[in-house]
Amino acid sequence: MKSMRILSGCLGLMVELCVFMLFAAPLCAQSGYQVISVQDGGTIKGTVKWQGPLPHLFVSDINKDLQVCDPLGQKHRDLERLLVSPDGGVANTVVYLKNITAGKAMDLPFPRRFLNQKNCRYEPHILLVPAQGTLTVKSSDPILHTVHMSGSADYNLPFVSAGQEISRPMTREGMVDLRCNAGHVWMNAEMMVASNPYYAVTDAEGNFELVDVPPGQYEIVAWHEGWRMIGESPLYDVMTQVRVKRPVFSAPVTWSKSVTVAPRRAAEVHFTLGEKSPQLAQGH
Predict the structure, then answer these.
(1) Which DSSP category does 264 fall into?
(2) What predicted TM-score, i.e. pTM, was given to this entire model?
(3) What are the residues facing 219 on neighbouring strands?
(4) Distance separating alpha carbons of residues 70 and 74, to the nearest angstrom
(5) In terms of residue numbers, what domain contains 157?
(6) Which of 89, 189, 228, 257 sits 20 to 30 Å CA-CA off 277?
(7) Phi, psi dihedrals of residue 234, rounded to the nearest 5°
(8) Is residue 12 part of a domain?
(9) What does the alpha-carbon distance between residue 180 and residue 235 come to, in Å, rounded to a whole number?
(10) CA dist 221 to 48, 94, 137, 153, 230, Å?
(11) Is residue 15 in some structural domain?
């Protein structure tokens, strides 16, 4: 009887250990970044600029829930896939450090961890959420929306009334596409689930800045979601129970460069994006 109790206890311990390893393994695999006290940190700043003539961009018809989705009677909606300022600055480009393993604590801006659905438009268009962090989605519209995610998250979130909020954890690093499955085919946004805090989204003038970077050499990456419409995909509208077509866009554009950060100094990197192929302007 005593040996049976010992065997039972050993089996119980083994089960607990296996369960711990099952859940701990993914966490360990995702914890390659270490938070440290950054001494003599530097700054990386720069721009993303458009080169050459602007392309013709797809504009979607607003053909559903017009009172909510089109209160100004514009009849069309720019999908915000390529926003270029008068002086050529490209907004909504994600710039980040790829190979950094230690640095400051996670401090991605809170407004980019929160998505609002307003007048059948996603605000903001580009989201940044820490890995193992939470995305909160709200609907300000008194109609049905269904936020469908694909990529590093696969949630499908229904919203049936104005003011409703839903939060979900983001457990996998990478890109997430967000679309509406309730027939509002023009609604689109992109989310980057980040493993470190050194991510930024370019502003309306194409500017970005990364601060408190430990001195060293890094690979800095610029990511743009892509703007070329290459086709349409059929979609079943869950509300009207009819098939509609949603635009399909070209793959994202990614390009990178090596940058050296000196203690308490600012390094500059300037990216150039164009219709034919992305190029990197000289940086220092």
Answers:
(1) T
(2) 0.85
(3) 258
(4) 6
(5) 31-280
(6) 189
(7) -70, 145
(8) no
(9) 10
(10) 11, 8, 27, 22, 25
(11) no
